[in-house]
Amino acid sequence: MTEIRHTPVAPTSTRRLTRGAAIDAHRHDDHQIAYAGRGALAITTHAGTWVAPADRAIWVPAGTVHSHQAHGELELHLVGLPADSNPLALDRPTVLTVSPLLRELILEYTRRPDETGDTPDTPPRARLRAVLLDQLSVSTQEPLHLPAPTDPTLTAVCDLLHADPADDRTLAALGREVGASERTLSRLFRADLGMTFPRWRTHLRLYHALTLLAEDTPVTTVAHLCGWSSASAFIDAFRHTFGHTPGTHRRL
């Protein structure tokens, strides 16, 4: 059994991770905000995966066992907050929109003490943290969670699609491969994952699209690898979910 690393205080720091690098499963007694100033960050728990590009952050509640995965050259900013500082009253990982002001606050707060001239307990940093929490309290929550199945049969189906997001087989065809009926799988998607099969597959494809864009993969190639019929169809789906096009996304 893998040992879960326990860090009582969630660190506030800036780390640079090369593409594909990971931070193994661990937990903190404090809350943590994880923000990718560059690249894309994926955080995984037993309940699934949350992914955040450069205009999003991930709230990780105190005590949550989680791991980090870097996509692209990741500039990871981590803000540790006491367990009693929870402005959004969130009890599970959540992707949040990062406004330009919140971005600058996170970048400033995660500078090393020898760069800011401060230590974590000084009044200037306390005031900075107060403003950061105030901005965090008005951040909107984003549907960038890819839930993980617990049912073995459903896990087999989801593994097939993780291996090839462009797989466009129907649920009935996938069911024949794993030995389950379409009706059974449809019920399991709703009961185990809380969403329909088409919605989960769309989330999976968008998750993979974000990771590929972080690797500087061309938009047309991303569309093909993630199962969209054309680049324009992918751009429309991406804009509908994130509010901007994949091309704009690269410049964030």
Please, could you describe this protein's structure?
- It is a single chain.
- This protein is an alpha+beta fold.
- The chain folds into two domains: 5-142, Jelly Rolls; 149-250, Homeodomain-like (Arc Repressor Mutant, subunit A, Orthogonal Bundle).
- Helix content is 40%, strand content 26%.
- The protein contains ten helices and ten strands.
- The chain has helices at residues 100-109, 113-116, 123-136, 152-163, 171-178, 182-193, 197-214, 219-225, 231-242, 246-250, and strands at 5-7, 13-17, 22-28, 31-45, 48-52, 56-60, 66-81, 94-97, 141-142, 145-147.
- Strands 1, 2, 3, 4, 5, 6, 7, 8, 9 and 10 form a ten-stranded mixed beta sheet that branches.
- Helix 4 packs across helix 5 (171-178) and helix 7 runs antiparallel to helix 8.
- The chain is globular and about 60 Å long.
- It starts with a strand and ends with a helix.
- The relative contact order is 0.12.
Low-confidence stretches: none
CATH topology of the largest domain: Jelly Rolls
Please give the domain count.
2
Taking the alpha carbons of the first and last residues, their distance comes to 40 Å
Residue fraction in strands:
25-35%
CATH class annotation of the largest domain? Mainly Beta
* C-alpha Rg (nearest Å): 19 Å
The helix tally amounts to: 10
Give the SSE string. EEEEEEEEHHHEEHHHHHHH
- Care to count the β-strands? 10
